[in-house]
Write a structure and sequence with these properties.
The protein is an alpha/beta fold. It folds into three domains: about 5-160 and about 235-305, 3-Layer(aba) Sandwich (Rossmann fold), CATH 3.40.50; about 180-225, no CATH class; about 315-390, Outer Surface Protein A, domain 3 (Alpha-Beta Complex). It is about 40% helix and about 15% strand. It has helices at about 5-15, 40-45, 65-75, 90-100, 140-145, 165-180, 185-200, 205-215, 220-230, 240-250, 265, 270-275, 280-290, 315-320, 350-355, 365-370, 375-385, and strands at about 55-60, 80-85, 105-110, 125-130, 150-160, 250-255, 300-305, 325, 335-340, 345, 390. The strands form three sheets. The chain has a seven-stranded mixed sheet, covered by helices on one side. A two-stranded antiparallel sheet has the order 8-11. The protein starts with a helix and ends with a strand.
Length: about 400
């Protein structure tokens, strides 16, 4: 057996032992939403406009126990969804989860990322969350997925960051040392890890980090095992992350948590440093941000395959002829106080509220503006906040 096969077998054994994620199975659709799994919201975020088609194909690559898969089915009612995973035991949980909640437009396959070419056709949206960093060869994995991405398609990826997981890395190594020849016995690994945390002094850095950041989710053994006794993990920084991205041959569209990557939140009191930073490349600025705020425990981002047409709404005529509708991932509307696509609270002005009430997917921006006191720049602000989707007018 090759080293790669050995690692893959160990990873499959972990998830057969501790199916992950361990969210409860419900007899109804899952609560809330994740906008990154909603094709309309994700496409609008990446391109600035609504996609032409909703009857798309979605691949959940490394679907685990089906938590994300279930959302992908329910949030995209016209899509056909495929889920693949290395762990047969976890796939059974995913099948039961989707069956119970009525997520029927999904097919599951017992496959690794490396074997994804066995699936027929291409996919418009590929979701790969928490998977690549657990493979023996992430570059091979991302390249295999990239070959299955359709022209004009999007790929959503989540991988670990080394700076925010430093204490986790230390704990992983400590547990392995104490396990000795019992490495691979995941029940033993969890027990050893629990005993370490119970014994560490109150002011110990590793213990404090666990209590501040991870302890709530790690009450479940499945989460604790995934974090501390995983047999394979590769953590990234900006420099190694973009080596992975470049190897995919796809376009980097952007991070899906853009607020974190705004330098002004860190150096806003030093405009001369902001000016210097603008002389750096985008990647250098990203690196500067993570060095100044090393809380980065993960990176989540979108890649795309050309041709991926992006809208430019800077021209007034084009914007006025566009047809707006509400972003499907907002909650609390109709109200002037809503949660936006990222669950952030937004207080709407009366004019903004009236505009949104008229966004029916048929009327043009110019027609709605005759009934409200809103300006075109204010409409651009609503788009920037991802509160509306726009379809280019004819």
């Amino acid at each position: 057996m090759s080293d790669s096969q050995t690692v893959s077998t160990a990873v499959a054994k972990l998830y057969d032992t501790y199916p992950f994620p361990p969210e409860p199975i419900l007899d109804e659709p899952p609560p809330g939403y994740n906008w990154r799994w909603n094709w309309l919201a994700a496409y609008n975020f990446c391109t600035g406009h609504k996609p032409k088609n909703q009857n798309i194909r979605i691949l959940d690559a490394g679907c685990g126990s089906g938590v994300g898969t279930e959302y992908l089915v329910h949030l995209n009612p016209q899509a056909q969804v495929v889920g693949i995973d290395l762990s047969a035991g976890t796939l059974e949980v995913a099948k039961e989860r989707c069956k119970r909640s009525g997520a029927t437009r999904v097919q599951f396959h017992h496959l690794s990322l490396y074997d994804v070419e066995q699936l027929p056709g291409e996919f418009d949206l590929i979701n790969c969350v928490g998977v690549l960093h657990h493979t023996p060869d992430p570059i091979r994995g991302i390249q295999a997925l990239a070959k299955k991405l359709a022209p004009g398609g999007l790929m959503h990826i989540f991988v670990y960051g080394e700076l925010g997981r430093w204490e986790i890395q230390l704990m992983q190594k400590a547990i392995a040392l104490l396990q000795g020849d019992k490495i691979g016995d995941y029940h033993d690994g969890v027990q050893v890890g629990r005993e370490i945390f119970a014994s560490l002094p109150e002011k110990n850095r590793i213990l404090k980090r666990e209590q501040e950041r991870w302890s709530m989710e790690n009450k479940k053994d499945e989460c604790f095992a995934d974090m501390y006794v995983h047999p394979q993990e590769i953590d990234y920084n900006i420099e190694t992350l973009f080596e992975l991205i470049d190897a995919s041959g796809l376009e980097f569209i952007g991070f899906s948590n853009p607020g974190f990557w705004e330098l002004e939140r860190l150096l806003g009191k030093a405009p001369e440093l902001i000016a210097r930073a603008h002389e750096l490349s985008d990647r250098q600025r990203y690196r500067l941000i993570e060095l100044l705020d090393p809380e980065v425990s993960h990176y989540e981002f979108f890649l795309g395959r050309q041709p991926l047409l992006k809208a430019d709404w800077s021209e007034d005529h084009a914007l006025s002829q566009a047809i707006p509708e509400l972003n499907p991932c907002i909650e609390g509307f109709p109200s002037q106080c809503v949660f936006n696509y990222d669950y952030q609270l937004v207080n709407l002005t009366t004019a903004e509220f009236e505009f949104l009430q008229s966004c029916n997917g048929h009327s043009k921006v110019s027609e709605i503006l005759t009934k409200t006191s809103l300006s075109l720049d204010a409409v651009r602000n609503l788009l920037q906040q991802q509160l509306i989707l726009l379809t280019p007018g004819t």
